[in-house]
Structures are given as structure tokens and as C-alpha cells.
Amino acid sequence: MSNGPSTSAAGDQATPNFRRATAPLSQSREATILRLVNLIDSGSSAQLHQLLAETKPVADAFAAAFRSCSTYVPSEALTLRLNDWFRTELTTAQELTTTAVDLLQRCSSQGHPGHDRRHILYMDSLSALRHCAEDNITDYRSLFLIGALYHDVGRLPEPRLYGAPASGVQGADHQYLGYYLVSELLKAFPTVPAEISDSIAFSVLVHQTGKDSDNFAAQFVQRADREQLVGPEFMLRTIGCNVGYGRVGLKIPNSEQREHTLSLPGTPAETDIANHLEFYMRNLYPNIGSKGSMHAEQLKVISGAFLALAHGENLFHQLFAPEIARDNDRAPVAGKFKPPLKLETWQRIQAELVGSNLDEARKLREFYQRDDSKLFRDFLMPPMVPDLGIVRVNELDPTSPSMLYQLGRAWDLLDTKERERYRLAFAYGIVARDETHELLQDDVWSNAELTSVTSPVTKAMVDFINRQSDEMR
């Protein structure tokens, strides 16, 4: 890393450039890959903490400088120049993308249930590719796919950094690790315009903030991230990570406060998984793209239906108090982090509770014949998932708190009716997950031929997704 962002002039454009301390060009890209893979897979807690201490002030200064430079909102002239480079240097753009992919594929770290390799290498990339396909993003901005791929890579060494995976607002350091890793990778490609490299690094650094609505790279990566915070993907991630690590339980206490106030995820005030799921369903920042809002609302419907199925009538009225108040022409009680859902989304949640997916869920629930351990496994580990390593799915020894063991402990605290409701909710989650994943794949593949022809970067990512899909089957 450099000692801080400097300013380089490009015509009349200025951008903070973290690459002033670029390593000698004789240093091979292979050496860069090996060094970064070793850091991700084997960096000690002391090394990671030292890296964070050195990176944070550099990254924060870089972000401040980037927001005030002309690259933040590119002019028409700058856009034309970057697209001219992209068209004439397609080989370099594709090499950068394939190198970024190769680096992560070489990592042996499996991550943890909230951020495993399946999520980081497959789901994030697939969401970003769908965005490219829907809006025909085939110019230099398609390189921002690298930001979507790398924004959560800093999560992989988290268990070594903290002793356990971070969750919710606790995971406040991984973006700095991701910024460092992607910055070091980009140093190996000094002919890529600084405006593109800096935009990629910035998008990784700020992906959790919900800010920077004027910067396309940031919003592009934030959308890929946000689509994993609602719907079936988030259900399996957050239950696997938070219940599976004993942070919160499945049982929800009866509390009138829930009618108007939610706790910040990952804080001591959060005691049950419903808060985690409901918080993001209600507080998701808007997504860009011609279909960004549509996808987000559909995923919120699935989160809402899961919450409704998993809890009884009294808790249902607490969970959806703002919507019920609106239905009855009453003003909701003022609170915190509990804005009402859009009327159409609320109506679709109610329709989902009597729809075909629920019929399929009831059939699937009967298939498991109360084999709760198998239900847990199938809910938490989709068919397309690699070995999660630290999850140790067959390890049910109480002396070694695996994800399934901790989930079993939370299950034991439920009464008979609560378990029956959760069985149906988990079965619904499996049905909704498989349907959503199939639709997501279809959205990408139906447009993949068009985008692959015009953008080698998109083609490289599509090829990568295909390989990931083959490996996970």
C-alpha cells in the first residue's frame, strides 16, 4: 500500500491513485497471486490486525479523496476515453478478470456459513451478472464485476481475525481487507486506467455504507451485496451463521416493543433470528438498475412469508404491526428501524401464504417425516454448495459446537407448535430457494450470449460461473 492517496492528472480529470507505490513490473502476476492467496488462507491474527491498522487510514483517505475527484461522477469526455481504452485493450481487461477469478479459486479457505465460498464466488457474481445482462452493461463498467466478486473476500479470514465469524454491524473490518486485496491485485495491471482501478477499489471499500448514490461502481456492487440480504439466500446464511454459532436463538419472545422497534443486527440487543431477518427486509437501501427494485421486493416477499410461517398469530401481529395498522387505517406506533413495507409487497406476502409455493412446502414437510436433522441440512446447504469446511455438517458431538449441533440446541428450546411452524417455514425456504435460484440462472443465461459477444469481461465471468456450477454439482 502507498502512504496515502495521491492525485494523478488524466487530461482534465483527476483521481486519487493508490497505485503510486506499484511494485516493479518484473514482479510476476503469479507472485502477486501466491502472496495474496497465502494471506487469505494462512495469514495469522497478528498479521491481519497489523494489516488492518496500516490499511484503514490509507483507505479512509483514499475514499475521501475519491469522493471529491472528477472520477466519482465521470464526465461524458472521461466516459468516452475509458470506453476507447476498453475497446482497444480488450485482452488486458479479460486478463484482469481471469486473474481476479484465478486468485480466488486458488484459495482453500471455505469461509463460514454467512460468507462461504458458494456465496462469495457464485451467488454474488451471479447477481452482478444478471444486472449486466438486464441493462446491457458491456462497456468498461463491466469491469466492476471484479468489485462484486471481491467485496466480501475480506470475510474469508475473519475466523482467524476475530476467533469467530462476524455478523451484522460487527463485520466492520472486512471491507478494508477486501480493499487491500483488490488494490494489490490491480497493481499487477498498471496499464489499466487509474480511474477504472480506483473505482473498483472504492466500490469494495464502501459496499456496506449505503452511501455514494451518485457513483455507479459503488451502487453496482452494493446491489449485488443487497440481493443477498433478503430472500432465501439470506435466510440460510443468517440462520447458519447466527443460530449455528449460538449467537441468537430461533425462539422469539413475546414483546410489544417488536411492534415498533428493531435492534441493530449483530449487537447484544439482538436475541432472536427474526430480528435479523426482519431488519434487512425493512431497511434495505434502494437498488439501481431497470429491475433492481423489482428483484428486491420479490426477495422481501420471501423473507416476509418465511417470518409469517415460522411464528404464531400473536407474534405475526407484532412482526407486521405497521402493515396491519395501515390496513385498519391506523397510524403505526413510532419506533426505530421498523418502516412499513410497500403496500404491494405486503399484499404479495399475504398471497404467498396461500399460494403454490406453500402447497409445495407442505408436501416437502411430509417428505422429511420429522427427520429434523435432514431438514436442517437441506435448508442450510443447497445442492450447489462446496464442502464448507468449518461447518462440519456430520459433527454432532456436543464438545465440538458445529453449526447443526448449535441449531439443534436452539431447536430443543422450541415447544411442539413452534417446531411444527418452523418445519413448514424451513420447507418453504427450500422451495423458494430452488425456485429463486433457477430464475436467477435463467435471467443470466437468457442474455449471456448477447453480453458475451460484446464484452470479454462478461464472457470471462460467465465462463467462471459455469465452472463453479459444474464443480458444485
Describe the model:
This protein has 473 residues and is mainly α. The protein is built from 21 helices and four strands. The protein has helices spanning 29-42, 45-67, 76-88, 90-106, 117-135, 145-150, 158-162, 174-187, 194-205, 216-226, 231-243, 273-283, 292-310, 313-319, 321-327, 343-352, 356-368, 372-380, 403-412, 416-454, 456-472, and strands at 6-10, 13-17, 111-112, 115-116. Strands 1-2 form a two-stranded antiparallel ribbon. Strands 3-4 form a two-stranded antiparallel sheet. Strand 3 and strand 4 (115-116) form a beta hairpin. Helix 2 (45-67) crosses helix 8, helix 5 (117-135) packs across helix 20 (416-454) and helix 11 (231-243) crosses helix 20 (416-454). It is globular and about 60 Å long. Residues 1-14, 17-26 and 384-400 have low confidence and may be disordered.
